[in-house]
Amino acid sequence: MSLDVVVPVYNEDRDLEASVRALRSYLDDRFPFLTLVPTANNASTDRTWELARRLAAELEGVRALHLEEKGRGRALRAAFTRSEADIVAYMDVDLSTGLEALLPLVAPLASGHSDVAIGTRLAPGAYVVRGPKREVISRLYNLLLRLVLHKRFSDAQCGFKAMRASDARALLAVVEDNEWFFDTEMLVLAERNGLRIHEVPVDWADDPDSRVRIGHTAIADLRGLLRLVRTFAAGGGRIEGFAERRHQADGAMAARYVGVGLLSTLAYLSLYLLLRTHMNGYVANVVSLALCSVANIVAHRRYPFRPPTRACWAGAAGTSFALCISVVFTTWCLALSSRLESGSLVAQVLALLAGTAAAAFGRFLVLRSLVFHSRLRDGVPPRPIV
Q1: Distances (CA, A) of 14 to 10, 180, 211
Q2: Where are the beta strands (DSSP E) in the chain?
Q3: Tens digits of per-residue pLDDT, 64-120?
Q4: Taking the domain 2-233, which CATH number applies?
Q5: In whole angstroms, what is the distance from residue 153 CA to residue 174 CA?
Q6: Segment 344-373, tens digit of pLDDT
Q7: Among residues 162, 123, 119, which one has the least CA distance to residue 31?
Q8: Residues contacting 317, CB < 8 A, separation 6+
Q9: Positions marked active-site
């Protein structure tokens, strides 16, 4: 597994050397796989390019990239396109985001649990130091994205993101912006095409010497937002190949559900046969179902990196409802078997199998809609929530 951490820079000769050395040292000490730090200089007029070249010559695992045109998005596009790594990430040169968040950012991508990872300053667990003006503007901007584009991620503007390099290259083919709206557009398109987005609450401190011109950037962002609205209204923004991946993911999820369900059923019957020798059959049935339902849900929860949300409570309610369905069906079948076959062991097992089969379809629908938090509208695939 390999990782490129791109540092886009424009007139950053004051911070560049200390930040790159700190980042390189952190990666050498903390990361278990190959890493590279490309500095992407976009049309700097100070000593930034000179320093970038010197650092690339002095430090192992540092590269320097120069562009004649200005634009953070343009710099990231060039760096991502040239990357040979499995995962590409970027962070601001001022290291506003604490480096300790870098490994949690990359981990779900390396493990295959997610496709895109972003730092967020607006989720529970984040610690942010910045002025009220920037805080209000950031929250208003993300609220606007949520209202207009129905996006689900919490923070589009944090300069701390990572994704699989193959996905980045596919997204770059349809991303139009080359300035500050670049990463927002990339993130919106990623979500629209069904990529799984993982969020990491970060510690973040505002840089008082930021090069961002708030007024100019806000206008450019609004223009980009309106352009995306027109594109989506016309049915655009879809990327070839991502739909096929979504269908494969759905098939894999269904196959996993069936496999876990079969194992769970065998465990349930084994527990029932063991417990019925020590307690009433109806009580043994409820206890066996409860234990196996908990194990079943744990087995389905393959995505442990997402922070808790209110959807978790919906998932818990759905799980409880699914358990009740199973209890009702199996209890009714047990009662029916005791009347028809005088409660023989074979009749009880057959009755329990029939009851669990009848409840399985309803349980699948509940798990898919609540625990897996299915979002089939607009082509977004099921997204598990822990």
Answers
A1: 11, 22, 12
A2: 2-9, 34-42, 62-67, 87-91, 116-120, 127-129, 160-164, 197-201, 203-205
A3: 999 999 999 999 999 999 999 999 999 999 999 989 999 999 999 998 889 999 999
A4: 3.90.550.10
A5: 20
A6: 777 777 777 877 777 666 666 655 555 444
A7: 162
A8: 370
A9: 183
